[in-house]
Structures
1.
Amino acid sequence: MELAFLKGLGPKNIALLHKLKIESLEDLMTFYPFRYNFIKRSNINTLEDHDTIIIDGVIEDFPKVFYINKKLNKLSFRFNIGAKIVGVTIFNRAFLKRNLTVGKSLTIIGKWDLKHNMIVASEIRFGKLERETIEPIYHTTYGLSNSSIQKWITACLSLNLEVEDYLPNEIISQYHFLSKMDAIKIIHHPNEIESLKKARTRLKYEELFLFMLKMNYLIANKSITLGLKRKIDEKKVKLFIDSLPFSLTHDQQKAIDDIYLDLISPKRMNRLIQGDVGSGKTVVSIVAIYINYLSGYQSALMAPTEILAKQHYETLNKFYEKFGIKSALLTGKMKVKERKELLSRLKNGEIDVIVGTHALFTDDVIYQNLGLVITDEQHRFGVNQRSNLKNKGYTPDVLYMSATPIPRTYALTLYGDMDISNIKTMPNGRKEIITSIKGEKDIKDVLQAMYEQLQLHHQIYVVAPLIEESENSDFENVHHLEEKMNLAFGKLYHIGVLHGKMKDTEKENIMNQFQENEIQILISTTVIEVGIDVKNATMMVIFDSYRFGLSALHQLRGRVGRSEFQSYCILISNRDTKRLEILSKTNDGFKISEEDFKLRGSGDLFGVRQSGDMTFHLADLKRDYNLLLRAKEDSLAYLKNHDIEKDDKMLSILLDSIIQA
Ligand code: ADP
Ligand code: MG
């Protein structure tokens, strides 16, 4: 129903609501608060230093304003809370001064500074507030206050509109869920926490159930997409695998078997290979390309950067030398003529496998018979290139490789109908990296450990969060570390610096020097996270390591431990060692990502892909993981017990999402 239906809501406010993507009364009702203020008065006698405080009182004297600099002012006054008088300070609210007359009653919200008997306020409330209130807080936009959104929502709720409840009755009764309308009313006007929790769970569950129902329906029906017809000589595949300079690990072999079965089956392959850095995913893709070649099709191998593309190209050539496969590298640096010639060979089918970045799928790149597309580090691409391929009229089998392991259930929700092969076993002969946690005061031990590695003629990475000193933080920075390291080791060893603000050529230059062991200590920001492989580097020292996410730390650590030498990782941190302890206990990327998943409210691991139908109002795939699992089971059971094709309401929801997918 249209917003204009609401009495008193004029065009100006409607335009403001549109800014918040509220187009209808239904949107307005489901515009949920993103947080709540729990206004329950504090007991001053039991507060600890730094606790949140909410307290009523009366202004005791005239407020004073101090202008600290152009951007910062401070307003202070004394505040009588009955039992005693405390100080109140609030920043950048000088304008409040004229409203703060002596004797006025206020409610103050802020942090309690025990030592100074003072409140550092974040909010000053005028007027009468209930002693115990849960106040919904909405996202707002300029010109529209929280209280006016509250007002419009209250008005809207009083109309008693119908809301569509998508949860099946059997589920509602199984969990004793509130009715949807009741839940919506409570979420906007909560009286107490317990019922608010119930209401939120009910609404979240509905979102998650629908989401999983769609996913599971898609998965159950995916065999519809047909792939290519292939005939493959299995003996030749065996011969190729035997020609490799090492025997495959169990998981590599399993992944190859998965791929082989996908390729000979009539359905289209859509598979993700997950495995830690160094677990041997590239070799798997090399075998996959060979199988595809045997059945007469071209392959494309796509890497996130040109450096990695080149590295892959060189690796391929090494393995394919004796097998007559013609490969090519497409780079941005190629001359026009060179590129033209290469593209015409690709079009004529003279090239069997082409390696490059996403430029492999620009308009002028035409394949004769593209049969397999492999994407390395697929999460870096973000876009779903399957639709890209479809637009060009290709229906190749698709393989993704990722070194950012994702817990299985989450991967399922994230990648939808993708099959997954995990490579968990590492190739033989690798030593576990020994990881230790040190405080900043232990710097002498760290330097000593570094010195031992240097004496063995090994090299060291040192990582800091910042490039240079910053006003707003006391994090260690690259330039400061350079001084420190120079002081300790400068006489004996060469020290290089690498960071994101440097030119590409400068970076390449430094990297080459490190590769050639002309530099022994490389100090850097996290730019070394990608694509660097120096086998002689055996130590990774990370300053302010609590600053980084678990998975980022794991990736950084993966820069060492690439040879038969024992490698070390030293995590320096003065706080939050709980997360770091996980790293010190395991080298297993899968375990780490599971732990990361459990520990964190949000983070980089899951900034992977946002698919169109994953926009939830309330549910959060990370925080509500357990609810997601429940919804997954329930939706599977529901699909099993119901003929969804005959259920018009459910089917329309599902079809809706299939068109998106
Ligand atoms: P990833 O792409 O998963 O990071 P790579 O495929 O680049 O890993 O493999 C890392 C290194 O391990 C390469 O030098 C590769 O030749 C080697 N390797 C791969 N599989 C094995 C194996 N089964 N046994 C011994 N070495 C292997
Ligand atoms: Mg790789």
2.
Amino acid sequence: MRIDLITVLPGLVRSPLDHSILQRAQDKGLVDVRVHDLRDWGLGSYRQIDDLPYGGGGGMVLRPEPLFACIEACIEELQNDLGEPYDEIIYLTPDGETLNQPLANRLSLHKNLLLIAGHYKGIDQRVRDTFVTREVSIGDYVLSGGELPALVLIDAIARLIPGVLGDANSALSDSFQDGLLDAPAYTRPPEFRGLGVPPVLTSGNHEAILAWREEQRLAKTQQRRPDLFPPEHEESVE
Ligand code: ADE
């Protein structure tokens, strides 16, 4: 998958992309993330990228000219590199649709994504109207820019691409993947400061372990996220 990310803070996004699973995904050639500095398309000798909002109010709005130029350059570069268009051009914004696991699953099936991280008071609406095919929020709270949301989205997508995670089953059993929260996890030692491990997990009985995990997942989901609790299980947890 190719992911292009337009940002005014390239330094902020590089470190997370260069670590752990995102780095491994790129090293394996499964994900190709390219960061584009909007400032390179800034206006005049000050490389201006933002301006005061028409109509007044606080904050700065990213101007349309640098964004149009940068997005058009990305579209052209992708066409030259792969002969393909973007499947989606996504703007990260608190007023977008809320990211959830089904949306991450759907986006992970695409080949080419362009992400736009806004800043200050957002981006000029004409950019959204002209290019953006989807607007995504990572939750009902406001961050100071779209960089962290873009990284969240990239991580949520990349780990679903076959071959990225060491254990292919791992992503499937994640919280939310089948609508339930995940079961508690334990590792060695079997006893630590007087705290033990549920005996079933060390029993070697795989059926019993699966049943225990399912029971734990149902109980945790009903307790913490009754909104997610599937109606077919309504009776199975006390
Ligand atoms: N930019 C600022 N806050 C955001 C959020 N919650 N989701 C996506 N983009 C954002």
